[in-house]
Amino acid sequence: MSQDVAASGSRRKIAFIKRGLFSNTNRRTREELERNFPEFQVEEIDIGLDLLKKHPGVMLLNWLWVFALYGWAILRHSRPVSPCFYYTPYIFRQIRRLLLAHLAGRHDEFAFTFSTQSLFDAHLDGVPHFIYTDHTHLANLRSPTFHRAFLATEKWIAFEREVYHHASRIFVMGENTRVSLVEQYGCAPDRICCAHAGSNIDTTPVPLDNTDYGNRTILFVGIDWERKGGLELVAAFQQLLARVPDARLRIVGASPKITHPQIEILGRVPLDRVKQLLTQATILCLPSRFEPFGIAVLEAFAIKIPVVVTRIGALEHLVQDGRTGRVVPPGDTAALATALVELLSDPEKCRRYGETGHAFAREHFTWEAVGKKFRAEITTALKSPAQ
User: Fold this and answer.
1) Above 60 in pLDDT, residue 285?
2) How far is CA 194 from CA 36, 166, 175, 379, in A?
3) CA-based, 20 to 30 A from 127: which of 169, 180, 223, 312?
């Protein structure tokens, strides 16, 4: 298939199909597509705003499917309801139907399609398709804290498998996702590119405001409180107060109902405020139960703040234990408390870890580097006779 600009002189397009913000990753992904493919125009399609919200009947019926399929797990195991919305075969088929209707008769306008995450099938027949994701669903099974009652239905997983096999290339953020695609979904290794990700905050250097790593402030950044290990962090914080009585914990993103004189709940804040809060922290702590990637770690490294994380998902690849932070077993509050005490009690170690993490992220994890990998892999795929 020729990928040249149409003979009429009009620019061909990239159909960028996404869902919401994806922790601001969608904004940065679009920017890199525009930067690295100036010969094409990017047309953005949000499956929520542009498709589903125009069909409230579909959304209502899907909620009935959610409770029919996952009601037991929701009630018995306190599973959060909202993440289940995209894990029904019904919504998978409906998104596919609505997307094809939205783009009907327009296949020739697009040089390629590009989607983020793998919760829906965005390929168009005859048009090269690319995916950028931080997870697979079956990778959940490799987390020791994942309950099998939360697993999607076999039908949905079969749909997810088709998503990957319809893609010309699959870009992943972490090595853990690449391994899952090969071992759990049967994807060919040469169709997978570990593109990584970058920080979503402005990485321009700014002075730290943490009393030279001595203010003993722990920062948590994450909206999904329980999945991100918020409960374990609070339990560990209670333990460490016996050894570091002036420690403070600031919680950003989530808004748990906690009342404690040394715990501050800030909830959702703008990205520039996240950067400011990082400059005021001694440590970022992300003790996730399950974590596909963990961009908050890169944001901490950008500000030269050390991190404490759990040995799970991509986190164990992002954080070098004893060099850029500490890595502890998931769910082990005693080990988490010990790691936090170690760093809060040693400002010089915090400085050293923070500077090492900054150098590591600057070399391997920037959006500019991600965009270059997009360009190289997609250009090669577009030239392939199979396309």
Assistant:
1) yes
2) 18, 18, 7, 16
3) 180
